[in-house]
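Ligand: 6-phosphogluconic acid. Inputs:
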Amino acid sequence: MTIVSREPIMYDIRVYDDQNSLMQAAAAYATECYNAAISDHGYFAVALSGGSTPRALFELLAVPENAQHIGWSKVHVFWGDERTVPPDHPDSNYRMAKEALLDFVALPASNVHRISGELEPAQAAAEYEQTLRSFFAKRAGKTRFDLILLGMGDDGHTASLFPDTEALNETERLVVANHVPKLDTWRITLTAPIINAAAHVAFLVAGAGKAAVLKRVLKGPRQPHKLPSQLIQPVDGELVWLLDKAAASELDR
Ligand code: 6PG
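Predicted complex:
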């Protein structure tokens, strides 16, 4: 596997006092990305992150005074990764987004592009790759999300790009099935190349539990096999780290 060593890229680190102000800022950032996309090409293609952190953001986006600023018929929702479970499973990233956001906004069902976690992993990945290629072929021609939201685990993973897993080596495919030994499970995940092709990539990281790994990712030596979040370096896009003070508490030490 060759990691092309790159000059450190420019990224924004934005730190907010607490989780609530972090989510307000994240909602505002997503809305800015939406406005830019609509002005530029008339639709907004966004990949949502999973896990627990983004639920509060999705709930905030669903609040009428926020939702009213979005033309939901122009929004296409995708996922950065999915667990290999059915869509109604408690662990499903789709289910979490549906419960927190999708059920409350006027998003056409045809604009919801979920990963079929219920399928055999390789089939789910191949199907999603085709979904992405077909979607973008009809539009910009280039496979470029307007916004990809990412979380980060306390082991430095993002999406389902976990340390020392095969998916980290992928340089061609947009979506892969990734076996995660530490969780003894398969995940479906976007790969670094498609994430790095996005116009905007926003990490949303909250809580003291992420402070130590965040310092290693942002300030430590480059070791993306161990810290896959370091793989995320948009080629021609903006990277922002949206943090609360607790998560950022070790950055200046
Ligand atoms: C997933 C996510 C994953 C998540 C991190 C952080 O499917 O779990 O996509 O990458 O963002 O594990 O999860 P928390 O927000 O729950 O800490």
